[in-house]
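Reminder to self: tokens first, then the designed residues, so the page reads top to bottom the way the pipeline ran.
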């Protein structure tokens, strides 16, 4: 891959270079880190069982880990413990999944309490991103969940796990999420962001972070094939 243009390098700095497939190995994660450093992405995002990671001391690379992933149906106590352990093992950021069923049932107080439990286990300046699985929710539910996330102290609201059959990020969802949180939180678009043009559209819609597994292909202008369970 040739050197990135300043514009493309700027997009790279908004990417969480992601590997969350169940079959990922330690060697795969090492390759992910090497590629992330080469591309200049903001972070790598991995499953918590892959921590701790070995990051070169001179690398400008953050570490994110998921929590309650991918179903969100874990007890809040377990999510909080999982997040705290990930931070103890070197994570800078946590991407937690809400209880989607609670949101669909209108139990937004429970959603807020779930997020607050994780927030309490990883005090600022550690970053908390809240995955709302936007494709599975109505607009009214998206708004209510985003409001709950902000009230609970989240730093980001995030569209998708990339594993839900309802789909991943959409421009409509990103715009709605950004309009709801304003400047009280940021928006991460993830799930199905596979091309450079799609990345630009998501950023234009209000996202400030992107979850991407095929970062090299995206930044080179290519579109990788769609894989089952791809982030």
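Designed residues (231 positions):
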């Amino acid at each position: 891959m040739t050197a990135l243009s300043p514009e493309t390098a700027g997009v790279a700095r908004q990417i969480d270079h992601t590997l969350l497939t169940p079959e990922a190995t330690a060697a795969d994660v090492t390759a992910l880190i090497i590629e992330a450093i080469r591309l200049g992405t903001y972070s790598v995002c991995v499953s918590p069982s892959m921590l701790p990671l070995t990051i070169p001391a001179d690398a400008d690379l953050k570490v994110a880990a998921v929590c309650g992933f991918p179903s969100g149906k874990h007890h809040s106590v377990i999510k909080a413990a999982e997040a705290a352990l990930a931070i103890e093992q070197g994570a800078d950021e946590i991407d937690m999944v809400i209880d989607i069923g609670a949101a669909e049932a209108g139990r937004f107080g429970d959603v807020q309490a779930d997020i607050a439990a994780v927030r309490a286990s990883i005090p600022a300046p550690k970053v908390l991103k809240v995955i709302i699985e936007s494709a599975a929710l109505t607009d009214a539910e998206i708004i209510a969940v985003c409001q709950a996330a902000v009230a609970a102290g989240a730093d980001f609201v995030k569209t998708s796990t990339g594993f839900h059959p309802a789909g991943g990020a959409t421009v409509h969802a990103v715009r709605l999420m950004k309009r709801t949180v304003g400047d009280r939180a940021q928006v991460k678009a993830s799930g199905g962001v596979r091309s450079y043009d799609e990345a630009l559209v998501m950023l234009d819609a209000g996202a400030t972070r992107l979850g991407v597994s095929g970062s090299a292909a995206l930044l080179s202008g290519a579109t990788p094939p769609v894989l089952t369970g791809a982030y």
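The mean pLDDT is 95.
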